[in-house]
Amino acid sequence: MEIGFILFLALISQETKTLKGRALLNPDISAIGNIVNQTLLENKIKNEFFIKEFEFAFQGYLYPSIRADIFLTAHGPKFGANHEHGVEGNHIGLDLEEAYVSLLNIWGGFSGKIGRKYIEFGKFNPLHPEQWLYVDPPKVIQNMFGTENLIGDGGQIEFLFPLPFLLRIQGGIFRNFEGPFQDVFYSSRAFSSFGISEFELSFGTSYVGGKTEKEFANFIGGDITLDYIKGYTKLTFILEPILAVNEKSKFAGFYSSLFYSTRRFQAGFRIDGAEPHKETEEEHTENKISFGISPIFAFLLTETTKIRFQYSFFPSEKPKHTIFFQLIFGLGPHSHVLQF
Amino acid sequence: MRKQKKIASLAKIVLLNQVLLFLFSILGKSVGEAKKIKVVSPICTFADIAKNIGGDRVDVINLSDGLNDPHFVEPKPSMIIHMINAEVVIPIGLRLDMWFFSLIEKSANPKIFEGSSGFIRTYEGVRILEVPEYKIGQPRIGDIHPEGNPHYWLSPDNAKIIAMNITKKLSEIYPEEKGYFMKNAEIFIGKIDEAEEDLKKEFSRFEGVKAIQYHKTFTYFADFFKIKIVGELEPYPGIPPTPSHISQLAEKMKKERVEIIIYEPFRNKKDVERLSKITSATPTELYADCVPQINELKDYISLIRYNIRKIMMSIEGKRK
């Protein structure tokens, strides 16, 4: 046995070169398509078909502890925008959606990110549209930020506490790229998670604040997520309330969802409750929360291709009924991060 | 007065002691306990190999096992805690366990980043099979692993290479324990040799048996035990079988006289049963990773033994 072992050692000490260097030096390049059909049911039926987004990702390491992620997006109109006439309806614009460098370890549990990125506010805002559990963003996000995702240019620093459970805090300073702020705004988030057997319970609190066109606005959010994961079976509950405290007014909203997923399909619903975003002071006298419910069903055709159906019912809005159909597909390594 | 001072200084010492104990407990270190090397593995097999090499010097955690598809383990935020404390990680690589790499990135632990001292490249020295070579115009469909088939640990020969890669790296990081690790590696490789010899002898009369696999999971295993893989139920990796693919495959299986269909427990059994009904090939559920809570599959050697015996039982049952 000993001679065999020595021969074996000699054999594996001659390193076999199995990979070609050039291929390894290339960044990971991926593309994700997100196509939506939206049918609005009011007095008459209005159907809209649009390319929601085509995302191109370039990702790789600059150094073992430094990586770069660039996401270029050819995007269609935003949900809730008027698609009927003019430029907003049909134009597909190219944007640098995110481009940032991650310093995976600065010192002793500190890490950071610099560049343009989705602000890590709550559970929903940091996600790319192809990662959403829903076809459209929750009403509270659209009403609060006036956009689907709050995006900024700047940097953030994070700290992971050396505790027996996960506790991470972060703070950042950004210039507005997409969102309600005029220029500079500040962000912070604390996030904690506990795993107990098949359950995972996570809590988060988030803050963003900065000067908008009229006043200094503060947005405070909380989020609770409970996951039950056993093999391919997954049950996910999310609750995310957000409060906007401005100099002259306050308004609030939330969304909550419950989903059951298996390997091939996912079924669930989202409940929305949000006060409308009002521009004038008089409008704030009437703070009526609009509620809505959206049953959602998704089917995974392949590991990186899925179709999703969503019906949204908002009794106090126009239109009351909306039916969505969505097709998402991914090519390349980034497509692996598609969340189901 | 002197007594009061004494009590006060004693209280200070007790308080200081409690603060220190609290700090130690927070940092997960208890006084007097020998420090173990913390190793995190994405799968049970690598954890088992690391335990065999590291013995009582290591504390190994595996984040998944043979009941889960290693491509798609849901990375839970609480798993990051294991990464924060890890000194060594043993990823599969070849773009199979991308979820494990995302946990490494989130850990802010420089010891375990790719290229760092605590990152073990387990497949170094392994002959990677099915490295795709494309010609212009050839379709590239499915979940292709551009660096080749990543299920390399299912060949016992490769398990020995993995064991040596772990030994080499642990010895580099902890040179004072090199002799201990080398001795354990020798014992472990000896155990694999013994199991290999037994199983090859037992299986020799079935060599050349033809099989269909669901996904390209058992390519290395089949290559080692001389099982001829005729095709896959998935038309392309990660793409579920279509009725037309199943009927084409059935034709091929009849021609080639395929006797077994091998698949893992998390695959769609209906597809396997449908194909089995048409072809009368025996569905044979195998595991691609050990499962600590199942005695027959508790470690790597048990896993290989279980798989080869399950195949033998299926063929014997069919040939009766």
User: How many discrete structural domains of chain A?
Assistant: 1
Assign the CATH superfamily of the largest domain in chain B.
Answer: Nitrogenase molybdenum iron protein domain
The count of DSSP E runs of length 2 or more, i.e. the number of strands of chain A, is 16
Oligomeric form: heterodimer
* Poorly predicted spans of chain A: 14-22, 85-89, 336-340
How do the helices and strands follow one another from N- to C-terminus of chain A? HHEEEHEEHEEEEEEEEEEE
**Widest β-sheet, arrangement of strands of chain A:** 1-2-3-4-5-6-7-8-9-10-11-12-13-14-15-16
How would you sum up the global shape of chain B? Answer: globular
Question: Can you give a write-up of this model?
Answer:
Chain A is mostly beta strands and 340 residues long. Chain A has helices at residues 2-13, 21-25, 86-90, 139-145, and strands spanning 28-41, 45-63, 66-75, 93-107, 110-118, 151-160, 166-178, 184-196, 199-211, 216-230, 233-246, 250-261, 265-274, 290-302, 305-313, 321-331. A 16-stranded antiparallel beta barrel of chain A has the order 1-2-3-4-5-6-7-8-9-10-11-12-13-14-15-16. In chain A, a hairpin with a 3-residue loop joins strand 11 (233-246) and strand 12. Chain B folds into two domains: 37-125 and 144-197, Rossmann fold, CATH 3.40.50; 198-319, Nitrogenase molybdenum iron protein domain (Rossmann fold, 3-Layer(aba) Sandwich), CATH 3.40.50.1980. The longest helix of chain B is centred in the middle third of the chain and has 26 residues, at 178-203. At the A-B interface, helix 1, strand 4 and strand 8 of A face helix 3, helix 4, helix 5 and helix 6 of B.
